[in-house]
Amino acid sequence: MGKKIKAEPFKIKAVEPLNIITREERDKRIKEAYYNVFNLKADDIYIDLLTDSGTSSMTDTQWSALMQGDETYAGSKSFDRLQEAVERVLGYRYVIPTHQGRAAENILFGTLLKKGDLVPFNQPFDSTAAHINVNEAETVDCVVDIAYDTQTYHPFKGNLELEKLHRVIKEVGKEKIPFVMLTLTNNSGGGQPVSMANIKETKRAASKYDIPLYFDAARCVENAYFIKQRESGYSTKTLAQIAKEMFSYADGCTFSAKKDPAVNIGGFIAVKNESLYLDLISRLVLYEGFYTYGGLAGRDLQVLAQSLYEMTNEDFMEQRIQQVNYLGESITGAGIPIVNPIGGHAVFVDAKRMLPHVPQSRLPADALAVELYREAGVRGLGLGVLAFSKQDTVTGAVTFPETELLRLAVPRRVYTDRHMDVVSEALSRVRDRKDEISGLKITYEPSRLKHFLSRLEPL
Ligand SMILES: Cc1ncc(COP(=O)(O)O)c(C=O)c1O
């Protein structure tokens, strides 16, 4: 007997038809989109793996929470529900709602950072790094070296290298480091988790210098799932227990609730310290709104509260990770190189290896995204030079990132495994004609967050 088949732990109550346009039409649409997949329209896409952010299917209990939203401007009951949920699930007393993750970054970083500061990270996400840069501060990647090796297995490639952290603190002094941050899971490095031991050690190391530790916690439950699977001592704990332990080691977090909680919009900051909370809400009023709604409707606060309880559902999380794994294994089975191990929310195809003849200056990750769309109407996201190159503010010299990855991010409970088969088969066909792909050039680029807005052209 083979492995026991496990099906989705839900049944489907509402469906949304998909539009499939022809290859000729897709060629036209991608040209009109300036070869930047962000400019494509929903009706021109068959399977959308651009992001798992705000694109998941909600449960019936999440939908019904919407109707219980209290739209009172100040003192909304829905805010109280959110505060209760944050305290019970994450263990933090103070919550500051924001319209999404980057708004939380704006509020936290704008309050804590000053010109010339440095923020050691495992690795920041692109919007996170941009928000740090806007405050004239810099991030320092302190992720373990093995994170850059896309082929070798390591259970916790999101870990922070403590040696690198100590070195930065010694070199610049703790006064220039207002906080250390861990992205859970590490999206930029391939959706890779951070171990509980590493979280604890990072906290201990930062505390030695009185530096607080914050989490970018968007996918904290996926991180908890990997701890449960891979770290000794956690296999019998629940995801809820593991997540709560993780949060106990941090001083606070920014949270894009569009990921693990699976809401369509929402985010927050949660902190332990009251005086920091008071500083944060004075900035919140300026950018997001009063502290009991922070840029969200009462109904969104109510759904978010419900979602925090649901995000640690063991069956849903297992199905989610297993579906991503299924996609990853089908792609590797076809001989296409991906980041190993397969990440929590996405499969990251190694575009440098898949298209070795396309130099980094010709944007292999973005070129692969364009070709996958042309092939089958599947939208993924190129994460390479366009998203992560760094320019020295003094010399103007540009540093390319180590990796060029095509991210195929899977929304939660939206597509079936059959859709995943379509994706891996399409990618195989692109691989079979890879010699036709010569890369892209930039015809317009904004000064920051280039991959969202740049215009490109095939070479
Ligand atoms: C790790 C991480 N942090 C922060 C963000 C920003 O969150 P939002 O899109 O809600 O602004 C994202 C979004 O994808 C992310 O993946």
Please list the strands of the largest sheet in the order they lie side by side: 2-8-7-6-5
> At the third CATH level, what is the topology name of the largest domain?
Aspartate Aminotransferase, domain 2
CATH architecture of the largest domain: 3-Layer(aba) Sandwich
Oligomer: single chain
State the gist of this model.
40% of the residues lie in helices and 13% in strands. By secondary structure, the chain is an alpha/beta fold. The strands form 6 sheets. A 5-stranded mixed β-sheet has the order 2-8-7-6-5, with helices on both faces. Strands 9-14-11 form a 3-stranded antiparallel β-sheet.
Walkthrough of the structure:
The protein is an alpha/beta fold. The protein folds into 2 domains: 23-52 and 314-458, Aspartate Aminotransferase, domain 1 (Alpha-Beta Complex); 60-310, 3-Layer(aba) Sandwich (Aspartate Aminotransferase, domain 2), CATH 3.40.640. Helix content is 40%, strand content 13%. The protein contains 17 helices and 16 strands. Strands 2-8-7-6-5 form a 5-stranded mixed beta sheet, with helices on both faces. The chain has a 3-stranded antiparallel beta sheet with strand order 9-14-11. A two-stranded parallel ribbon has the order 1-10. Helix 5 links the parallel strand 3 and strand 4 (138-141). The longest helix is centred in the C-terminal third of the chain and has 20 residues, at 314-333. It is globular. The termini are far apart. The relative contact order is 0.16. The mean pLDDT is 96. Bound molecules: pyridoxal-5'-phosphate. Residues 53, 100-102, 125, 127-128, 183, 187, 216, 218, 256, 258, 267 line the site of pyridoxal-5'-phosphate. Pyridoxal-5'-phosphate binds next to helix 4 and helix 5.
